[in-house]
């Protein structure tokens, strides 16, 4: 099982939020806008799933956002993102099921690692390619 908190695709991770005036208010404060956090989560792992996007149907707030994800195995999930982490709240897009008691994951990597063997494989291969590239650079 691969547990990692790094993203092998961090090469092009300049999202440009700093320059965007809409987001300037969040600098230097402890308030996290979960929609921004959710967008960052999606951008980090989109390469390793079939589809992933922040829900436009379910309400986003400072303390919660919802992310729809379809794994490469074609399984659909709705994820809840809060300060506690990420967890599955439904087995379809834009849904929540209060009866579902799924565990929180600290990172999207560990959550997807537990849901999708294909994600694990793609992520692992991307990590290996990045390590090979770093090895070549240092020679």
From TrEMBL:
Q: Where is the GSKIP domain?
A: 34-134
Q: Which InterPro entries match?
A: GSKIP (IPR037395), GSKIP_dom (IPR007967), GSKIP_dom_sf (IPR023231)
In Pfam terms, one family for this protein is: GSKIP_dom
Please give one Gene Ontology molecular function term for this protein.
kinase regulator activity
Q: Name one GO biological process term.
A: regulation of canonical Wnt signaling pathway
One GO location term (cellular component) = cytoplasm
* Family, per entry: Belongs to the GSKIP family.
* Name of protein: GSKIP protein
């Amino acid at each position: 099982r691969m547990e990692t908190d790094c993203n092998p695709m961090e090469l092009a991770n300049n999202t440009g939020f700093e320059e965007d005036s809409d987001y300037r208010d969040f600098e230097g404060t402890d308030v996290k806008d979960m929609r921004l956090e959710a967008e960052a989560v999606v951008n980090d792992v989109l390469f390793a799933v079939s589809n992933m996007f922040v829900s436009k149907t379910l309400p986003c707030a400072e303390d919660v956002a919802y992310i729809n994800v379809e794994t490469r195995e074609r399984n659909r999930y709705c994820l809840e993102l809060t300060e506690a982490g990420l967890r599955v709240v439904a087995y379809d897009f834009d849904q929540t099921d209060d009866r579902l008691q799924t565990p929180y994951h600290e990172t999207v990597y560990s959550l997807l690692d537990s849901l999708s063997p294909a994600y694990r494989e793609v992520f692992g291969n991307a990590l290996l390619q990045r390590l090979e590239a770093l090895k070549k650079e240092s020679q």
